[in-house]
Write a structure and sequence with these properties.
Strand content: 35-45%
Number of helices: 2
Distance between the termini: 33 Å
Shape: globular
Number of domains: 2
CATH class of the largest domain: Mainly Beta
Strand order of the largest sheet: 13-12-11-20-15-16-17-19
Order of helices and strands: EEHEEEEEEEEEEEEEEEEEHE
């Protein structure tokens, strides 16, 4: 259990905010499946999203839009232009990060967004006036069968590496997700490695984990020799070099596609 604070990056600026020690311990413990059943510090740059007018790369791939709440809560509607609030989410979120969403459809005054709730893949509508838009040309693709990840900038492959995935009884669920927060463990040599990105998805076999909602994550590891195997309760493990690169380059809100 971690006793020192970790840093959570702001979705829009990349700036770090420290949480109290108890919150730090609870936050990392609550991320699902980040440890296997049998257990078989970079600079502050990067990690910030650009503005919503970011240009598409030369290959024509459209940037992904990221919507970040501007108030202390945001109302979610079931349909565009709806009057009935389906859910209200707090901002910052439980990990101290600004509440961010991956935009699925921009309809001007309304945005359809991917939600960080169960069931995986849930969407809802938010008012454009309640969020600030930014954009990224990065996306992360994860192939559990090949035990590999690939980061694309538009259509160009810019980083790839080996991963560890969920064990057979707690598999890593396929789907489209996004990074919801970036956490920095107090001990970079611990189970979670140098950094941990929370994902908008959840385990489909564990309703709860360590007192949390069974949230998935992409994080580093103190056992790189175990990569290339099914070793977790659903989280995706990468080397500390790879997660550090991601932390320095990929903003909260980056799309994550887990193949299946």
């Amino acid at each position: 259990m971690y006793r020192l604070p970790f840093a959570a990056r702001d979705a829009r600026t990349g700036a770090r905010r420290l949480l109290p020690p108890l919150a730090a311990a609870a936050a990392l413990a609550a991320l699902t499946a980040c440890q296997s059943a049998p257990a078989g510090a970079p600079d502050d740059g990067g990690g910030a999203g650009g503005d919503a007018s970011a240009e598409a790369p030369a290959d024509g791939a459209a940037p992904a839009e990221i919507a970040t709440a501007v108030g202390d809560e945001i109302e979610i509607y079931a349909e565009e232009g709806g009057e009935e609030v389906e859910e209200t989410l707090a901002s910052p979120n439980d990990f101290g990060a600004d509440r961010a969403f991956l935009v699925q459809q921009n309809a001007g005054d309304w945005l359809e967004v991917l939600l960080p709730v169960r069931p995986n893949g849930s969407t809802g509508w938010v008012k454009a006036e309640d969020v600030e838009l930014s954009a990224t040309t990065f996306r992360l693709e994860v192939d559990p069968e090949a035990f590999t990840f690939t980061v694309f900038d538009g259509g160009e492959e810019v980083r790839s590496g080996q991963i560890g995935t969920g064990e057979s009884e707690t598999p890593t669920p396929p789907g489209r997700y996004y990074f919801t927060e970036l956490l920095q463990p107090s001990d970079p040599d611990g189970d979670y490695g140098a950094y941990a990105f929370g994902l908008s998805g959840h385990s489909e076999t564990l309703e709860t984990f360590a007192g949390g909602p069974g949230q998935l994550a992409v994080h580093g590891t103190n056992d790189p020799d175990a990569l290339g195997q099914q070793i977790s309760h659903g989280c995706i493990r990468v080397s500390n070099d790879d997660i550090t690169w991601m932390a320095e380059n990929l903003p909260v809100g980056t799309p994550v596609e887990i193949l299946g």
